[in-house]
Design brief:
- The protein is an alpha/beta fold and 278 residues long.
- It has two domains: 232 residues, Alpha-Beta Barrel (TIM Barrel), CATH 3.20.20; 36 residues, no CATH class.
- Strands 1-2-3-4-5-6-7-8 form an eight-stranded parallel barrel, surrounded by seven helices.
- Helix 2 packs across helix 4, helix 5 packs across helix 6 and helix 6 runs parallel beside helix 8.
- The structure holds 3-methyl-2-oxobutanoic acid and sodium ion.
- The site of 3-methyl-2-oxobutanoic acid (KIV) has 11 residues, from loops.
- This is Cell wall biogenesis and architecture protein.
- Its EC number is 2.1.2.11.
- Keywords: Transferase.
C-alpha cells in the first residue's frame, strides 16, 4: 500500500472518508498498527501511563518520548507517523518548542508533532510549522497535560461559553497552521460544529461520530490497561486477561515438566554423537 502523506489525509478529508488513527508505543504495536491499515499512527504521551506506569502524562520526558518514537518508527512504513510533544517540552518558549519538534523529527523519526492547548499556543505552532517546516497536529478539549488546571479528567465544552471558547481555539489553531486538530471529550454537537466550520480535518476521541476521524489509545481498546477505562473507549479485546491466563498456563507447564516437549521444542545432536552419548 502506498505511503500515507499529509496529502493523502487531505484527500480523505475532501472525499468525506473517515480518518482512522490509533496510538502505538513500541516496535510490535507500530508494526501491527501499520499493517492493519490505519491512516495515522500516534505515539501519544498516553504511553506515560499505559506503557510506562507513570501516574499521569506530565511525568514523561522528551528523551523518553523520542526513545519510544524511534521504536515505533522502525515498524511503521506506510501510515503517517505523529508524535506527542510531552509536557514541559514546548511550554517555556518558541525556541524550546522548535528545538523539541526538531528533535522529535530528527531523532524520533516522526513526520509531525502534536501538542495540547488552544489560542495561546498559536504563535508557537506558527513557528514550528513555518520556521521549522514541521507539520503540527493540535489537541483541544480535554488536554491531559493540563488536567490539574482543568480540575481533573472531565468533559469540556458543555456550557455555551466553553463551547464558544473551543470554537475560537480551533480557529486559532487552524490559522496558526495546524494540519489536523484532535478534539477530546467534548459533546458531539460541539465537535460536529467545529468540524463543519473548519477547513482542516478533526480527529475525535470521546467527541461523537461526526468528526473527520477517530483516535483510540491502543491499550484501552485492547484491554491492556485496567487502571481506568474512559466512557468513550470501546474495548475490542481483553488482552490483559488473555495474557495473564496464558502465562499462568506456561508456569503450570514448567512446574509440571510439560514444557518443553522433547523433539518439538528441542534440538537433536548429530546422529553419530547421539549413539555414543546414550
Ligand atoms: O496521548 C494520546 O494517546 C493522545 C490521544 C488520545 C489523542 O493524545
Ligand atoms: Na497525548
Amino acid at each position: 500500500a502506498p505511503k500515507v502523506t499529509i496529502q493523502t489525509i487531505g484527500k480523505l478529508h475532501r472525499e468525506d472518508q473517515p480518518i482512522s488513527v490509533v496510538t502505538a508505543y513500541d516496535y510490535p504495536t507500530g508494526c501491527a498498527a501499520d499493517s492493519s491499515g490505519v491512516d495515522i499512527v500516534l505515539v501519544g504521551d498516553s504511553l506515560a501511563m499505559v506503557a510506562l506506569g507513570y501516574k499521569d502524562t506530565t511525568e514523561i520526558t522528551l528523551d523518553e518520548m523520542i526513545h519510544h518514537c524511534k521504536a515505533v518508527a522502525r515498524g511503521v512504513q506506510r501510515a503517517w507517523l505523529v508524535a506527542d510533544l510531552p509536557f514541559g517540552s514546548y511550554n517555556a518558549s518558541t525556541e524550546q518548542a522548535i528545538h523539541s519538534s526538531v528533535r522529535m523529527v530528527k531523532e524520533g523519526r516522526a513526520e509531525a508533532v502534536k501538542l495540547e492547548g488552544g489560542k495561546r499556543l498559536a504563535p508557537r505552532i506558527n513557528a514550528i510549522v513555518h520556521d521549522a517546516g514541521i507539520p503540527v497536529v493540535g489537541h483541544i478539549g480535554l488536554t491531559p497535560q493540563s488536567a490539574v488546571a482543568l480540575g481533573g479528567f472531565r468533559v469540556q465544552g458543555r456550557s455555551l461559553d466553553d463551547a464558544k471558547r473551543l470554537i475560537d481555539d480551533a480557529f486559532a489553531l487552524q490559522d496558526a497552521g495546524c494540519s489536523i486538530i484532535v478534539l477530546e471529550a467534548i459533546p458531539p454537537p460541539v465537535a460536529e460544529t467545529i468540524t463543519r466550520l473548519l477547513a482542516v480535518p478533526t480527529i475525535g476521541i470521546g467527541a461523537g461520530p461526526l468528526t473527520s476521524g477517530q483516535v483510540l489509545v491502543i491499550s484501552d481498546m485492547m484491554g491492556m490497561f485496567d487502571r481506568f477505562t474512559p466512557k468513550f473507549c470501546k474495548q475490542y479485546l481483553n488482552m490483559g486477561q488473555q495474557l495473564e491466563r496464558e502465562l499462568a498456563r506456561y508456569t503450570g507447564e514448567v512446574r509440571g515438566r510439560k514444557f518443553p516437549e522433547l523433539g518439538t521444542h528441542t534440538y537433536s545432536m548429530s546422529a553419530v554423537v547421539e549413539d555414543e552419548w546414550s
